[in-house]
Amino acid sequence: MALTALLSSCVLTVQPLPPAEPVAPSTPVLVNSRLGLPAYPGSRILKREEKGDGSSEVQFETSADLDRVYAHFHDYLSKAGWSRWTLERKGTATKLEARYQRNNTGFELQLEQEGRSGRYKLGIDF
User: Could you give the CA distance from residue 125 to residue 98 in angstroms, rounded to a whole number?
Assistant: First the structure.
């Protein structure tokens, strides 16, 4: 009887949780700010350097092969209005060099895979 009286006298107050803050969609990591060029999806950036003229060098890791990685960058650049003027394979097919042009601006893209590893170096030179 005493337990029933004690339980009936207890009041439990529940405080509502504050509203959740909106989460901004994640911004893709850029490998070149001047071009707005996003990193290869799922890659891990190891090192990134950018110069005042917009040139850059990025080292990253991914399990994708060289052609797939290059296709990602080429597709983005093509959609952004850049035209590829040249494409050349160097070494034992572990390095690609391409020249792009839009209006009166051009740059060279160099993509190199370190051996057959998942490590890459991407250079953009204006």
Answer: 11
Please give the residue that has the higher pLDDT: either 26 or 54.
54
For residue 27, name the pLDDT band (cuts at 50, 70, 90).
confident
Q: In sequence order, what E strands does the chain have?
A: 30-32, 37-38, 44-50, 56-61, 83-90, 95-102, 105-113, 119-125
Half-sphere exposure of 28 (CA within 13 A, CB side): 12
- Bridge partners (DSSP) of residue 50 are 56
Q: Report how far apart, in Å, the C-alpha atoms of 33 and of each of 9, 37, 109, 117 are.
A: 65, 7, 14, 26
Contact 83, 101 (CB under 8 A): yes
45 three-state secondary structure: strand
Instruction: At 88, list the tokens.
Output: 């050349």
DSSP single-letter state for residue 103: T
Give mean pLDDT, residues 43-63: 97
Tell me if 111 sits within 8 A of 124, measured CB to CB.
Answer: no
